[in-house]
Amino acid sequence: MQSRRDQVQAYTFVVGRLTTGMLAADPDALDPPMSRTRRGATTGLIIGVLLCVGFLIFGMISPGESTAWRKPGTLIMEKETGARYVFGGGVLRPVVNYASGKLVTGGQGEMLSVGRASLADVPRGAPIGIPGAPDSLPDAAGLSDHAWQVCATSRTAADGSTESTTTVGVAAAATTPALRSDQALPATGPDGVTYLLWQGKRLRLDSAHGALQSLGYGTADPVRVGSAFLAAVPAGPDLAPQEVEGRGETGPQLAGEKRRVGQLFDVRTPGSPDQHYLLGRDGLHPLTVTGAQLLHGDPRTAKDAYGGKEAAATVLGPDEVRAHLAPKGGAGPAAGLPAAPPKAVTRQAGTVPCLRVTPQGGTPDQQLTQVPVRYAVGQPAAERDGVTAGCPAPELIGARPGFGVLAEPLPSGAGSGTLYLVTGEGVKYPLASADAAKRLSYDGVKPVRLPSALLRLLPTGPALDPARAARPADAGPAAKPDPGCANAAAAGKGVQKGGTPG
Predict the structure, then answer these.
(1) What pLDDT score does 152 carry?
(2) Mind telling me which Gene3D superfamilies this protein's record contains (predicted)?
(3) Which of 323, 341, 362 is the last residue of a domain?
């Protein structure tokens, strides 16, 4: 008896023979009549899909030219040549550098790269921009607040002699230990004046009145430093004996003898350091160890206060000192001097002395340190049209490409309001306004505050002014010298004469 499956198969076989007979005129044909059609349709579908995928990939690799660059105020770069343009009013105007383009377009977006063919039929205008402005700008994330350093380096001159140079590290200071408060480094400038580098300052040693020998630095070998290094180190008070009014005049009787104004006295208390005093017209004035040693070695003390004899301090009792103390507020030694002469540090082999300036809030931290020579390197300062040299100009400037600094100078401990952009070339550019900073995409970036004497060492480029950037490129003045350079030159003359610069 036939099963249901046998019946279905028999029915299917009969229907297939009928269909084949009607379509192919042969009920016993081996291939079904629609097999070629199905194979052709499947093959065509696969080829179509492959073509679509190929066109998609080609479109992603080589997209068609966009017309987005035709928006007014767009910064454009021609793909084939790298030439930059600003589009506006249906005209392409070449810009002389990238910074000028950013100032004109207002930082509305990134530079668009467009093929030469798309720009071929667009009219060209006259070039615009600021000659000498930077052609590369750090982004906001690349603005650094790291420490700077100014190092007293040296090089071999053409005649074989060694000459002093200065190397400035822009936001690239080495992390070496600073000199302690009881350490100092004697240094000699190009004018022959000797200084004591101590606690981030330079103290001029009054060699005319014996300060070198009085403080124990007579046999020290000072490091020779350049004028740019000295200009960067803040000037402290002179290490000089204080002036004594009426030196040599008759004074009161002390320790059983008649004394003269200008003589020195000590009080010795067991278990405590000796106390030092100077006899003035109005009584005894307390002295630090440094002040006492400076007066003791001053030739005027022996000549006038001791009648030409060797100056020697007389020991007094505490009661006698209290009875002859001068009123408070009288003339005394200058503030800012070390209480005791710091120890002269010998320059370590393979190192150079450096001033490290660390931005921190309103007042930068300035310390003296010795840095390995390999960390005090740089390139010659940039020399090109539109850029003026620093004052005094360092021989080498070390800066990190791609990074920069947004800096505000600090004269006399207060901000001047001027902002500078220091680029990876070690050149500083004044920003004409807050709008200029915004157009360069630095809106909201907090500037670091640095001493004006430090920033003055860097070359100065033209002011980055949006209004100037939109004008023809051949109509702009050269960069203006740093306004503080004249004052720095006057201060430098004071240093050469042996005075304390203001």
Answers:
(1) 96
(2) Type VII secretion system EccB, repeat 1 domain
(3) 323
